[in-house]
Fold these 2 entries.
Entry 1:
Amino acid sequence: MAATLYPIPVSVLTGFLGAGKTTLLNRLLRDPALSDTAVIINEFGDVAIDHLLVEKASDGIIELSDGCLCCTVRGELVDTLADLVDRLQTGKIERLKRIVIETTGLADPAPVLQSIMGHPALVQAFRLDGVITAVDAVNGGATLDAHVEAVKQAAVADRIVLTKADLATDAAGLSALRARLRQINPSAPMLDAGRDATGAALLECGLYDPATKTADVRSWLGEEATHAEHRHHHGDDHDHHDHRHDDRVKSFTLVHEGPVPYSAIEMFLDLLRSTHGEKLLRMKGIIEIAEDPSRPLVVHGVQKILHPPARLPAWPDQLRGTRLVLITLDMPEDYIRRLFAAVTNQPSVDTPDRAAVVENPLAIAGMRS
Ligand SMILES: Nc1nc2c(ncn2[C@@H]2O[C@H](COP(=O)(O)OP(=O)(O)OP(=O)(O)O)[C@@H](O)[C@H]2O)c(=O)[nH]1
């Protein structure tokens, strides 16, 4: 009997109401990549359609939880996950390879991610593998126009799945939607629900693959795509006027060549979270620490919650230095860049140095905005 490997990967499946999450999940559950998976479905309202569909689709699935995830169920999701660990440890469940949480369509995904990453006991047992966001190929554009939650769902995704492409008769509209999603989230691979959204393509989005013991930093950070996006943002060829929420979301990379003292990174992350934590939708990064430069420090977080920083045993490729990818909503990029420059002592005309920031963090313009 294969033992359960901790921490157990958790995939969060999100997407707006009716986007096709359950349909996708039902298809995925027939994929061998999802054997020994527990599915947690968050139902909104009292008709348990999702639950029936899922039970039909696969045996041995544990189905729990109801109510709205973004408010009252936050506590319950934690209880549900804790209960799973308990059942594993007491042998009531033989093994558990992964968990998929389907959020309600209205939920902001951040609280779900926070409840996993922010809970001191759960964080030992689970790791966030990735966020999969389903976007309706027909109604996706209108949903992004109307609901900032939908924009956030797309922005924090590690994988975007376009659903109902078979119903999309407007080819130009579909390619505009793709371009728009690419703009909101430059790094997540975009897959077609009916064609290439397989278990293998959607799962194992994390940095470190325990099976192969390798880490693919570049694709985890989505770095090249982020750089490309950054240039595009500053180009003058783009017309945003009818996408009112899209411009609020930004994805950018902070880079520092050479090692950084642990205390500087700690201070940067503390200041960032305490001043603008709720605007930080997602952060991922790899850091060359001055005290131990051969073992990169890996950080990732959702809003104010940081996953406990972990060390990789070695640098997986030629990449060195510090790369932090931030996905933000309404956050002053300039402030973040200045703060980062200050703590890493990168000279700049009007930015105080690290000593000055330690003395008075308010010295950075934008600190209180
Ligand atoms: N033609 C077509 N229909 C789809 C596809 N995906 C989903 N649907 C249909 O769209 C409707 C909504 O799909 P669901 O999977 O229930 O969507 P959901 O995101 O789980 O919905 P909520 O749980 O209500 O937020 C259903 O009638 C599905 O049959 C698709 O790829 N093609």
Entry 2:
Amino acid sequence: MIKALVFGGNGQLGRSLMLCARDFPDIELTFLDRRKCDLSDLGAIGRAILDCRPDIVINAAAYTAVDQAESDIEQAFLINRDAVRAMAQACEELNAPLIHFSTDYIFDGTSQHPYRENDPVAPLGVYGTSKLAGEDAVRAATARHLIFRTSWVYSPFGKNFVKTMLSLMVQRDVLTIVNDQTGCPTSSVDLAGAVLRLVPSVLEKTFAGFGTYHLVSGSPMTWFDFAIHIHRAAVERFGADWAGNECEIRPVSSDAFPTVAKRPGYSVMSSQKFTDTFGFGLPDLAESLGACLDQLGEGENNA
Ligand SMILES: NC(=O)C1=CN([C@@H]2O[C@H](COP(=O)(O)OP(=O)(O)OC[C@H]3O[C@@H](n4cnc5c(N)ncnc54)[C@H](OP(=O)(O)O)[C@@H]3O)[C@@H](O)[C@H]2O)C=CC1
Ligand SMILES: Cc1cn([C@H]2C[C@H](O)[C@@H](COP(=O)(O)OP(=O)(O)O[C@H]3O[C@@H](C)C(=O)[C@@H](O)[C@H]3O)O2)c(=O)[nH]c1=O
């Protein structure tokens, strides 16, 4: 039996790992949430890892409030950099690989082509800067790491764009959604399945795939396009009398929807390196969004 320790058990990715765990009976997952291990307490992180002595650590925790991070800089760096460094150092001490997640918001969005792993990074805000610092901390502390950069994560769990849109579509007659930021919506349930599928091979002595990978679902679109997809999929699933059916969705520029943190205009990432190395990719948006709405309908959406 493989022993995996997961930080961030209560987040979208953490709960998706819990959901997928039933398909991987050879992996015994132990989940830590804020109550069991507050990552602000850096000393507690090493203790938790050394107490559990896992074969592998998965960090699904992060400070993810993009706008709030602009004024909560210390906490963002504490969780996204310092706590990650503590995790990576304890993993190195135990010789356990660390699987960590990062974001498209480390890029400035000026690329003319899907970002590859070696493209220059230049985050526009505190969240992206702190996540980039976390990546660097992992690389400095342990060679046995996998960093998966992903983007625009949604799921039946927690807070995300799909759930926000579904509730706003019911509450409002008109929604204005930015149409000049392009990225790849990605299901955390798909991410969780992919990661658990990799775990056994990562633990093989001959595994040579450590490093940084982009891992997204391959359907680039704007947030406006994504809202249209969500609306269409919801009407298809919940029927024409769904309360959000009549909501009008209008495209606007980012100037018309000001946010505290600036977001990249184009943060599409290529998962080619991942697919070439591991021989599979993530399902496309239609399939994954449909599954998410089905799970929401089945009541998997505890806030
Ligand atoms: N969400 C997205 O769109 C994207 C996410 N990512 C990355 O993917 C990974 C997973 O993200 P996702 O699941 O969406 O994130 P969530 O915000 O859903 O979950 C993050 C988890 O981290 C936990 N956490 C935060 N601070 C602490 C703390 N001090 N002590 C203990 N736990 C803490 C939160 O706990 P609590 O529930 O108690 O608040 C939460 O459960 C992260 O690395 C993120 O940066 C990358 C690209 C896009
Ligand atoms: C609610 C709403 C948002 N928007 C815009 C604001 C923003 O530009 C875009 C997305 O808004 P959100 O705040 O939901 O998403 P945001 O917090 O920017 O999402 C990011 O989260 C972090 C954690 C990541 O790592 C990124 O990959 C990305 O997923 O949609 C509208 O245009 N209209 C609306 O009604």
